[in-house]
Every structure is written in structure tokens, then in C-alpha cells.
Design brief:
single chain, 391 residues, alpha/beta, FAD/NAD(P)-binding domain, 3 domains, 6-stranded mixed sheet, 5-stranded parallel sheet, 8 helices, 26 strands, binds flavin-adenine dinucleotide
Amino acid sequence: MRVLIIGAGVAGLSVAKSLRALNEEVDITIVGREGVLPYFRPALTKVLSPNFKPGLVRAIEKEEFFTDNGIEFVRDKDIVSVDYQKKCAVDEAGSSYVFDVLVFANGADCFVPPIKGSDCDSVYTIRELSDVEKLCSLLDGGKKSVTVIGGGVLGLEAAEGFRKFGCEVSVVELFPSLLGRQLDSDGSVLVKSLFEDNGISIYTDSKTKEIVNGTVVLESGEILNSDITVISAGVKTRTALAESIGVEIGRGIKVNEFLQTNVEGVFAVGDCAEVNGLGIGLWKVAMDQGSTAGENIAKFINGESDFSSFCFGTYCFTTNLFRTPIFSLGVVSGEYEDASALSEEDIKKKDAAFKKVVTDKGYEKFFYTNGKLTGVVLFGKIAKATKIKLD
Ligand SMILES: Cc1cc2nc3c(=O)[nH]c(=O)nc-3n(C[C@H](O)[C@H](O)[C@H](O)COP(=O)(O)OP(=O)(O)OC[C@H]3O[C@@H](n4cnc5c(N)ncnc54)[C@H](O)[C@@H]3O)c2cc1C
């Protein structure tokens, strides 16, 4: 039996690990198009600085892991086609990889909105280590202007990194607030001031009209200097290879709770997958899906059918912006009454209320719905985060 995993990110690696733990015999091959060992991708926007070196981005497993566990890891090879009838995938150099079971773990590309000029030379995205290497080498040459289109967490982390190079940095966000999905309104306002205090210009509620080499033009008519423009506007799942062999595609590669596609013996995990209609591009989701798929592939190979289900959990958000740690969990925006002056007992009598405590570094906010703790924001000090459990 040969299991071929396309994509050497955390999802693909997790499939290989959990499958190998249950089956010592099966041939496992992971093919990845990056030239490096699978690594901690979330670090990419956090290591942008003049001190960058590739070693700052930690490999998930050392080279020996693959030899010790009999997992064939093929790097620097891009799978360009799959023939399901012949049970074979082919890379760009024409080498083929045969399989009995196929796993798509090929992640996502950065989404580039249809902005006029988004195809010009000065426009970049950040998804792979080589993107960070490229940007750092461009910025090493001296002071430049950089515009980040997208004020989500990755865009903001990147903007902080560009500032460390001494660049003139602007962030353009379509929505009226920063981190609107992860933070309450107090948090969004504080993040904006934090960035402005650190010399970054923030344009919220702003749409980009056009990118020209050297400038970004906003719908408002403002013109921003922009030697380099980085688009950070979400992701687009990689589905073309799966689609070519008849796998059903939605916003991602469609799989059931067992991570199986509609095609026999073909699974999908991580950022490329849409599980029962839902796709969440987070590290832990990709890792957990990979582990569950690995277990199910072991059962599939043994002819068993009592597959394990993958269920989405509640995922926390953490970041650290300009040395300010930020954490949130659950639902933290919407119509909540300020009940900070009430006792915990009285807050629990309210339908939707929050309690805010100002700390020396920021604040803590606890959101209650029908007496239950349903959301938390910790801003500035997050040591409590490990102890927090929603009701
Ligand atoms: C800059 C950045 C910061 C992030 N920060 C966070 C964070 O703070 N917290 C969090 O939870 N998540 C974060 N994420 C998201 C998280 O990294 C992803 O959810 C996770 O990496 C998904 O893992 P994956 O294995 O599914 O896909 P990926 O990590 O994208 O791995 C897929 C791999 O497949 C390879 N590949 C693609 N096509 C082919 C092909 N045809 N042939 C061979 N190989 C191929 C790709 O090169 C890639 O190496 C961040 C992502 C980025 C880009």
C-alpha cells in the first residue's frame, strides 16, 4: 500500500505521523514544493525584521524524523497533475509518484482582490518562506515606503515587521475597525493607536482604487507612497488538482467529517479542505485534521469502517503587536450591556452583558450570554489565558 501526501505543511505532516503510529508497513511519501523541511508557518509574519534569517522559522521536525520513521520526504517538487485511473501523480520535472491512497494537503494561496494594478512588480503576498526572504532582501537596501492592504492579524504583524526596517508604512483596511472579527471595539481602537504611536499610518474604512509602481491610490483620492505593496486579504484554497480528478469542490476541497472526499481513497486536510461546508485556516485545525485523517487512512487500509470524526472546536486568537500581547476567545462583539459595576451574580441575570476591568497594561473583558461566559478579551497581559474556559 502506498500513501501519497501532496503538500508538506503541518496538515500533511500530521497525516504521516498519525498514520505511521498505527501502521509500520505502509509506504508514505510526502511531496512538498518548498525547498525546506515542514516549518511553523505562523512565524512568517513575526520574523520580518532586519535580523531575519531562515533559521528563525522553526522546522516542525528535524531531518532525522523522516528517516527514523521511514517516511519519504520529497522537497522542492511541485505536483502538477494527477491521474486517478493510473493512480499516479507527476511533478513539474516529469517524475511520477504512484499511490493507492491520495491525500491533498496542499494548503491555500493568498487571495488577491481584483484591484487595478495588483499584478504589477511591486506587489507581494506572504505565504511561504521564500516570500519573506524576498521581502527582507528588498528592504535591506535602505528606507522604503510599504503599504499593506488588509488590516487583519497577518497584515498588522507584517506592518510591524516593515517598520523595524525603518520603512514608511501604511495599512489600508476595508472595514471600519482593525481586527474586527477577533476583538471588541475597545481592542480595535487600542490596536489602531498602538500602530499610529509606532509611526504607522492606518486607513480604516478605505478601499484601494489602484496600485501603480510607487503608489497606492485610495477610493477617497488619497495617494500613498508605496515602493512595495503587500496584499494580505485572506486566502484562496488550492483546489485545481483535486478538481481535475473529479473531487467535489466548494470553497475548498469538500470532505466529510472523516476527511474523505467523494472519490474513493482520496482525502483532504488543512487549509485546502472544506469539512461539511466549513473551512477554517488555522494551524491547530490543520494539525488536528491531519491526525484524524491519518487514523482513518490506517483503518481504510485495514478494511475497517469505524472512522474517527473531526469536529471543529473553539479556537482562541493570540498575537503580540509592538510588545503588546492580545488574546481573545469566543464571541466578543455584538450588542452587550456594560455591566462592569455589577456583581458576577447580577451579570449572570442579564441576557447579554460584559464586565470590563482596566489593568496597568490594558484591560480584560468578559462577555456573558444568558448567564454563561461566552467570550473573553485580554489586552496587554494575557497570563490568565491558559486558565480561561468558556461555559
Ligand atoms: C503568514 C502567516 C501567518 C499565520 N499565522 C497564524 C497564526 O498566528 N495562528 C494560526 O492558527 N494560523 C496562522 N496561519 C495559518 C496557518 O499557518 C495555516 O492554517 C496552516 O499552515 C495550514 O497548514 P496546511 O498544511 O493545511 O497548509 P500549508 O501550511 O499552506 O502547507 C501546504 C504546503 O503544500 C505545498 N504545496 C502546495 N501545492 C503543492 C503542489 N502542487 N505540490 C507540492 N506541494 C504543494 C505548499 O508549498 C505548502 O508548503 C498563518 C498563515 C500565514 C501564511
